[in-house]
Amino acid sequence: MSVTAQSVWNNCLEFIKDNIQPQAYKTWFEPIKAVKLTDNSLSIQVPSKFFYEWLEEHYVKILKVSLTKELGESAKLVYIIKMENTYGNKQPFTEKIPSSNRGAVKSQDVDIPLNNKSPELRNPFVIPGIRNVKIESQLNPNYSFENFLEGDSNRLARSAGLAVAAKPGGTSFNPLLIFGGVGLGKTHLAHAIGVDIKDKYPEKTVLYISAEKFTQQYIDAVKKNNRNDFIHFYQIIDVLIIDDVQFLSGKTGTQDVFFHIFNHLHQNGKQVVLTSDKAPVDMQDIEQRLLSRFKWGLSAELQNPDFETRVSILKNKLYRDGVEMPDDIIEYVAKNIKTNVRELEGAIISLIAQSSFNKKEITLDLARIIVEKFVKNTKREVSIDYIQKVVSDYFQMDVDTLQSKTRKRHIVQARQLAMFFAKKFTKASLASIGSQIGKRDHATVLHACKTVDNLSSTDKQFRKYVEDISKKLSV
Ligand code: ADP
Ligand code: MG
């Protein structure tokens, strides 16, 4: 029997079918057509770019395993994107993309001599058993500046990122600390800086790593008595990007080693980029000496994008996916999902998926159902304004009184309670809470939180206030 694209693909499908959920198989594999087989390369046709991205994101491993089984180690997969009559596509078009094998190792960056010259220098990225692995930047090329839409909410951080990328280590933004809430684009921007630097300076060693992975590597290094190798490895990097440094909270060993690495890089004019979900003043359990380093460069905040920016983010995403959607639907989604770009995109992806797989038209009603799911799943964040209103109502005063400069005890207490709940129920920084509750500074807010803690454990009446207001805020 001769080997054809169809027969190879059928065998792959059999294997895949046994290994994933039937629903997922139906959704993601049944619509694929095998179109061509040349040497070791199988071309498959998928219905949209979104479809291709989804496969690469979620099923690249199983595709690789099954294809290797059929065609050997040098097997290649090529996607052909063909859009036919799905809702809203402009023209049917095709585009060929080779499987990126995300997660596998791309050879670039520097060569670490593993066995010859300096056998003691180990690369923490080496997977045991695989030799001669090079340092990979671990960058996601899809996170580019081009795709990171500009708005008032991110202008400072984005421009600083561009400046750093143009002259890594050569600006006063070193380190560049990008901070902001969940889903606002910290990781995206951090990657974009790295991707742009690799583009402009291919010889530079760029490394992106999450603080969590960094910590894990450090723990492993200590276990294996490789602490020095670990430090040494990080000290040869030109651009070090560490994501979510708040993860280092309370981890003194890792903070200590990072401190040394940071100093070495900084002294040698190397660029450090950090992200965090908090401003430096609000980071807890991070050593002072490290915090003071964080403040050497620039801290730039990513804020919630305004409506216009949300709309342009969605339009850009749809454009990249080659999908058209009526403006009123885009606007509906942008109006209702405000504080998290990831969810904004998630809602749109669900909409596209729903419509293209169930062959439903994208309507406002469908949008409503999907948005509702997203909004329901994310616990609504109470606003600081709302907290002030609830607290003032509870004490039968108006918000102006609560915010006033008076030292009258019951008013001071109400104000402190408002600050305490703002800290507890919102992601706002101490400084931002202070500025919204009567223009106080972050130290005042911190003091208020401590006072409320103390009083509620010593004063019964006060504890009752806390409990009552808590209840009002959580319904
Ligand atoms: P964070 O790390 O802050 O939690 P991410 O960087 O993971 O957030 O961003 C979440 C999603 O939102 C990503 O898919 C990212 O591409 C997208 N995103 C965030 N901000 C923007 C923006 N300004 N333009 C385009 N996409 C954005
Ligand atoms: Mg992130």
Corresponding CATH superfamily of the largest domain: P-loop containing nucleotide triphosphate hydrolases
> Count of helices?
20
CATH domain fold name of the largest domain: Rossmann fold
CATH architecture of the largest domain, please? 3-Layer(aba) Sandwich
Mass-distribution shape: globular
**SSE ordering:** HHEEHHEEHEHEHHEHEHEHHHHHHHHHH
The helix-and-strand class reads alpha/beta
Identify low-pLDDT runs. Answer: 84-95, 101-122, 126-133
Fold blueprint:
Elements: H1 5-19, H2 22-28, E1 33-38, E2 41-46, H3 49-58, H4 60-71, E3 76-82, E4 94-98, H5 155-166, E5 176-180, H6 186-200, E6 206-210, H7 211-223, H8 227-235, E7 239-243, H9 252-267, E8 271-276, H10 288-294, E9 298-302, H11 307-321, H12 327-336, H13 341-357, H14 364-377, H15 384-394, H16 399-403, H17 409-425, H18 430-436, H19 442-458, H20 460-474
Parallel strand pairs: 2-3, 5-8, 5-9, 6-7, 7-8
Antiparallel strand pairs: 1-2, 3-4
Helix pairs in contact: 1-4, 5-6, 7-8, 8-9, 11-12, 11-13, 12-14, 13-14, 15-17, 17-19, 18-19, 19-20
The chain binds adenosine-5'-diphosphate and magnesium ion.
Structural notes for this entry:
With 475 residues, the chain is of the alpha/beta class. The protein has four domains: 2-98, 2-Layer Sandwich (GMP Synthetase, Chain A, domain 3), CATH 3.30.300; 155-302, Rossmann fold (3-Layer(aba) Sandwich); 307-380, Helicase, Ruva Protein, domain 3; 384-474, DnaA protein, C-terminal DNA-binding domain (Chromosomal Replication Initiator Protein Dnaa, Chain: A, Orthogonal Bundle), CATH 1.10.1750. Helix content is 51%, strand content 11%. The protein has helices spanning 5-19, 22-28, 49-58, 60-71, 155-166, 186-200, 211-223, 227-235, 252-267, 288-294, 307-321, 327-336, 341-357, 364-377, 384-394, 399-403, 409-425, 430-436, 442-458, 460-474, and strands at residues 33-38, 41-46, 76-82, 94-98, 176-180, 206-210, 239-243, 271-276, 298-302. Strands 6-7-8-5-9 form a five-stranded parallel β-sheet, sandwiched between helices. It has a four-stranded mixed β-sheet with strand order 1-2-3-4. Strand 7, helix 9 (252-267) and strand 8 (271-276) form a beta-alpha-beta unit. Helix 12 runs parallel beside helix 14, helix 18 (430-436) crosses helix 19 and helix 19 (442-458) packs across helix 20 (460-474). Bound molecules: adenosine-5'-diphosphate and magnesium ion. Magnesium ion (MG) is lined by residues 186-187, 243-244.
